[in-house]
Every structure is written in structure tokens, then in C-alpha cells.
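Hello Y.,

Per our agreement to keep a running log of every chain we model this quarter, I'm adding this entry. I've kept the format consistent with earlier entries: sequence first, then predicted structure.
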Amino acid sequence: MATALPPTDQLLYTPEEAAKVLRFGRSTIYELMAEGALKYVKRGRSRRLRRSDLEAYVNGLEPASN
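Predicted structure for the entry above:
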């Protein structure tokens, strides 16, 4: 059973959705949030990641040197 990725016009992502978009594990997303590497907004007990913050994180990644 395949799950659809969130639409690209989506502004906020749950950590689970962000994990799917970035192709990381859910726990990795929570670790990156705890480290401050991934910014998030919190409303009550809910955490959401902005699309722009996900893009900024990806753009800041260093390519692997072989």
C-alpha cells in the first residue's frame, strides 16, 4: 500500500510528513528538531515544520566528498 506524499503547496508539515518528504526516518526528524537543525513551530502540543525551513535545511546540506 503506497501512501501519497503531501501536496507541494502545503505550508506546514507534521514531523511524519516531513520524514516522508525528506526520506528520513521519523526519529531522525525529531532528533534534528531537538538539535535545532530543523526549525519548527509549536501550537499547543503539536509541532509543525514550515516548507521553507525544510528547504533551507536541505539547501544547507554539504555534499558528500568521495
